[in-house]
Amino acid sequence: MKKVFDFVMISGVLLGIIFIITTLCFKKKTDKAILYLNLVIAFLILNNLQAFSLETFLMDAPFFIKRLQIPWYVLIVPSFYVFLTHYLKIEKKISSYVYISFSIFIIEILIRIVLFPYYYHLDKNMFIAKYVQIEEIINASYSIFIFTKTLLILFRYTDLYQQILAFDNLKWLRNLMFLGGIIILMWVCAILLNLNKTLNPEVLIYYPLRLSTTTLLYWISYQGFYNYSLMTERIELRKAILIEEKSKENNLYISQPNDNKFQPIKKYIEKNKRYIDPSFSLEKLASEMNISTSKLSHLINQESGYNFSDYINYLRVEKAKKYLTNPNYSAYTNVAIGLECGFNSKSTFYTAFKKFTSQTPSEYKEM
Fold this sequence. Notes:
Number of strands: 0
Helix content: 55-70%
Mean pLDDT: 85
Shape: elongated
Radius of gyration: 27 Å
């Protein structure tokens, strides 16, 4: 069991190091959001690596060394908080807590330096242990405070970053916060369970916590970088599309029977590009056209040959086909193009594209 635990810990550390090296070599390496994401990963790596080293190679280290570890963990949640403010481009509207977090870290390092003479006195072990316990409670409280601030941003202050919601629904971030909440809860439980074991806390209680932070390392490495890169690409892609559409009329029309009842609906959807809204629904269209959903559904089925969902996806695919074969958009990924055409995920885009063209976007692009 210990070998499995060690393997997961080390593989997580290696993944994190690879992630940092990769992002530093990435063309957007100067982007502050990516730099702060790197810091989150770095502090997770340092924290896990320190714990692994102490339990594997420094088992016989003096009590002072084993207990007064460098408190990297106090910087993990604040770094993620700052990453989030930059990701959402609201860093100028929200307090960053960078100076407070860094000050706490520096103060705790200075306390270790002041306490260094205790390294030589075994009779001071209880004092060291009590200090470490109090310090962990303070750090956990501060982390919970910052975590709560992060939750408020994601779930209550959405008006601050409406422009970002047009490119990312932030579902991945909300899932990440759920995982983070579980990890913090496990941390609090570990502290409470060791409350009466000041001198000799049960290390095994922290194993689930460390495995969870390794899982977090895997998750945030991929999701953070992938979604941020995709979002920035979509912003650039949308700018390019708007410039093109301003220079020429780019409305999408599909050959359909000239039916007086259906044509106004068809024209409204295509002229106003309602199909590029990922949340567009039959109910929304019925409300906008002032018609019952049942009548509208029957009309679309009868005149287009598709149900509402397929009809809207057909329009999106037709739009995507234009961009996939346009040399001006060759620098953009298929996923970014699909999302900009109204699909809400890579899987729905690929499934719909295959359904209407019998090809994947990549195959169609290479034709």
